[in-house]
Amino acid sequence: MLIPDSKWGSLYRVDDQGLSPGQILLQGRWGKIIIETGEKHTQYHRENILEIVRQAEFPKKPSRLSASYVFPLFEAADLFHKWRWDDGCKQCVYLVGPVDVEAACHLGEINCLPPIEKFDETEIARAYWRGDQKAFGRDFTKLWMPELLIDSPLIVFGCLTEPF
Fold this sequence. Notes:
single chain; alpha+beta; ADP-ribosylation fold; 4-stranded antiparallel sheet
């Protein structure tokens, strides 16, 4: 299977074991979980603030509630994979690509997601949507954990890691 040319190069996703090459992953799974669980979900408040700021100030950026999540760096995906494994999730790192290579996207920094102690959550959300890696006096370029939101389903090209 040919990997389509992407303006982002290779893209990686951490997901459940057993995905097959050619499989299509629908976008918006995270948002569906947040919306269905509602305020009982531990990330509901954070995602609500991010969505309010996005709608008001960054409306052309894809919503975290309806986008696909990928990593533009294998190292970031692998680190996230290891963190998720420690959390009890048996997942793998996959090489993926957007079905729509022209889809709207946003490059954000996971370390810049609210909450960040002693800072206003709305300001943190603005920094996330600006893609600010040095927000709040913290230089995240040393442990850069970029996530790319893409307003497109994904196609799986293959598994790059085995579960631990």
